[in-house]
Design brief:
Helices cover 50% and strands 17% of the residues. The chain is α/β, with parallel strands linked by helices and 256 residues long. The chain has one domain: 2-enoyl-CoA Hydratase, Chain A, domain 1, CATH 3.90.226.10. The longest helix is centred in the middle third of the chain and has 20 residues, at 80-99.
């Protein structure tokens, strides 16, 4: 199934119990509201699909895995209510990943920025390739990683998260991300990454769905309040993004 979205898409395919959810946007796989909405919808659907045993989250292309929030949509936000609505899109995706009873494997083939790091952190297992560097760039545009923060901090710890959040213009290499626990596996090339991904997905597709669902509950124990928390965080970002400082910073980034 292919859900076409203006200038992008979300594509879903299921084969032998493995459901692949792929997103694409021509601006380095950035995430406009429509793609966020569709991702949340398809993750929810796959979680409730009896044919799906495991989910693979991936993006298209050979360069960036995800550039985070769409600058075009960020610059179009005029009110804090519009800001809340946009950033709630990230909250909904992360919460659907968290509550999904199926394991979600992230295939990270390139660089990750902002909300893209949040997607990887919210996955249950991430397999990456050398060169898939990460950066939480939110402070550089006058906001902060408020919505994705709980997922990133849960995965890599408060110290590593604060380092990423504070030094918002510095790329962290794949070895750093692997050592901190964001990436479960790191491979020298795409072939090795995809071979490992296929092996794990096939193994999980033959594992007990009941056992995996119970395991996922225990892995995410203590996050039950995130439905409320992430929306509250979205409101903070929504308020900050309409500041003059943020608008100037985004315009500067768009001109690069």
């Amino acid at each position: 199934m292919l859900q076409e979205i203006q200038n992008g898409y979300v594509k879903v395919e299921t084969h032998n119990g493995v459901t692949s959810i792929e997103f694409y946007h021509p601006q380095s796989n950035s995430l406009p509201g429509k793609i966020l909405e569709e991702l949340a919808k398809q993750i929810h659907a796959a979680g409730n699909d009896v044919e799906t045993k495991v989910i693979v989250l991936r993006s298209s292309g050979e360069k960036a895995f995800c550039a985070g929030a769409s600058f075009d949509e960020l610059i179009a936000i005029k009110t804090k209510e519009e800001g809340l609505e946009f950033f709630s899109g990230f909250a909904h995706v992360i919460n659907e990943m968290r509550k999904c009873v199926k394991f979600i494997i992230a295939r990270v083939h390139g660089k990750c920025v902002g909300g893209g790091v949040g997607l990887v952190a919210a996955a249950d297992y991430a397999i990456a390739v050398e060169g898939a560097e990460i950066k939480l760039s939110e402070l550089a545009i006058g906001i902060g990683p408020f919505v994705v923060g709980p997922a990133v901090e849960r995965k890599i710890g408060s110290s590593a998260f604060s380092q990423l959040a504070i030094d918002a213009t510095m790329w962290r290499n794949t070895d750093w991300a692997r050592r901190k626990g964001l990436y479960a596996e790191l491979h020298p090339d795409v072939t090795g990454m995809d071979e490992s991904l296929r092996r794990l997905a096939e193994t999980l597709s033959h594992s007990s769905t009941v056992a995996m669902a119970e395991m996922k509950k225990t892995f995410w124990q203590g996050t039950e309040h995130w439905d409320k928390l992430l929306i509250e965080r979205a409101a903070i970002s929504g308020k900050l993004i309409i500041s003059e400082q943020s608008r100037k910073a985004i315009e500067k980034f768009k001109k690069r």
